[in-house]
Amino acid sequence: MSPSAVLPETTGGLANEAMKHTIQRTAHSLKSTTNGTHSSLAELDAGKLTFTRNLNPITVPEPNSPEVWSQSVCSDHMITCTWTSTAGWQAPRLQPYGPLSLMPTASVLHYATECFEGMKVYRGFDGRLRLFRPDCNARRMLRSAIRIALPAFAPEEFEKLVMALVSVDGEKWLPKSRPGSFLYIRPTMIGTGAALGVQRPKEALFYVMLCCFPPFDDPRGTVTADPTHMTDAGIPSAPTRKPGLRLLASKDDMVRAWPGGFGYAKVGANYGPSLIAQGEARERGYDQILWLLGKESEITEAGASNFFVVWRSREGQLQLVTAPLGDKVILEGITRRSVLELARKRLGEELECVERKFTMNDMVLAIEEGRLIEAFSAGTAFFISPISEIHYRGTDLDIPLENGVSGKYAALIKSWLANIMYGKEDHPWGVIVEEKSLKA
């Protein structure tokens, strides 16, 4: 893999050179060097994986239970692998899930040297386990890691380690009696070097866990894990309002990301500062923040998801529009990419797919002129979620829902993706994972 396959297209100058040097020092197999030199550090190697069985496994919670909605119950095992600046990657371990040990001076606790991925493993209606485009997650994780001076790795080794964990815990935690269910996968890398001072971490930890997650994409009316919307049993109360997500547009005093920054990388520093705004939105009865940028109120993302709109241009062309990736503000979502690729292939004669900047003024005009067809968000956690309302500058803007719970195109594209994820459609994006039984 060449550097061009890893680095953002518009990255240049100092950042570009620094990320190339990180790859050269920590993963020379990616062929990033230009001077023929290679590091002697050991690279990430899934073939060295060792396995220690969890002798104290826990019970799998029931679907839609308080345990699932807590988003804190993880499967019996996890993957861990340490890295040092003197030796490189050590042998990865598949071990019992449990606490991590960090020194108080660990880099991640002071300088936000942390990145992660969001994936799911699906129990298909054919009984098989599948990942969805894990190669894309692996490459994005690599981009995120080198952006914050964490070590590089070969993306295929990342994939192998994720599949190893899924193969061991999948049989129990996604039983064949529950087709159409999923587990959330959280690969993470943190800087663990025990030293203060603004510098590259000299030690790092890569780990992967599987977590029980509820579905957030119910089109009948969004429910959240906010305690104010919980029943006494710890389960979200039934929706009593209009279906679809309600978004609160951000104001000028806060942005999620900015041109030339690191919005394209899935790093913790992109999320922590946004939580205060998200919490305020939920206090006011909205589900997420619609992140705007600049004096023109450019639309960027909806919460932690990509934002799509379907409208007719003033020339009458039916368009699917989403913000572009070029200035590094937008996270290149795997679901975002898949929506665009499927729409271009299967709806190309009906719908023009456009990646361009657009503003809230464009949205308001489309609504006033009757050109807005629908809007939806796309991401791993919320999947494809129709949007029913946007609050902007004191006004609630109603977004059409053609069939009462979703727009036509959101529902259609969602069904295509779900069919691939759950094995109803044979597609190369659905990667089958062979299971390993741990029964005695």
What would you note in describing this structure?
It is a single chain. With 440 residues, the protein is α+β, with helices and mostly antiparallel strands. The protein has helices at 13-26, 66-69, 107-111, 134-147, 155-173, 275-283, 334-346, 360-368, 408-421; strands at residues 50-51, 77-84, 88-89, 93-96, 114-116, 119-123, 129-132, 182-191, 203-211, 245-249, 288-293, 298-302, 305-312, 318-322, 352-355, 372-379, 383-392, 395-398, 430-433. Strands 1, 2, 3, 4, 5, 6, 7, 8, 9 and 19 form a 10-stranded mixed sheet that branches. The protein has a 6-stranded mixed beta barrel with strand order 10-11-12-13-16-17, surrounded by 4 helices. Helix 4 (134-147) crosses helix 5 (155-173) and helix 7 (334-346) packs across helix 9. It is globular. The model has no long low-confidence stretch (mean pLDDT 90).
Please render the helix and strand layout as text.
Layout: H1 13-26, E1 50-51, H2 66-69, E2 77-84, E3 88-89, E4 93-96, H3 107-111, E5 114-116, E6 119-123, E7 129-132, H4 134-147, H5 155-173, E8 182-191, E9 203-211, E10 245-249, H6 275-283, E11 288-293, E12 298-302, E13 305-312, E14 318-322, H7 334-346, E15 352-355, H8 360-368, E16 372-379, E17 383-392, E18 395-398, H9 408-421, E19 430-433
Parallel strand pairs: 1-4, 10-11, 10-17, 14-15
Antiparallel strand pairs: 2-3, 2-4, 2-9, 5-8, 6-7, 6-8, 7-19, 8-9, 11-12, 12-13, 13-14, 13-16, 16-17, 17-18
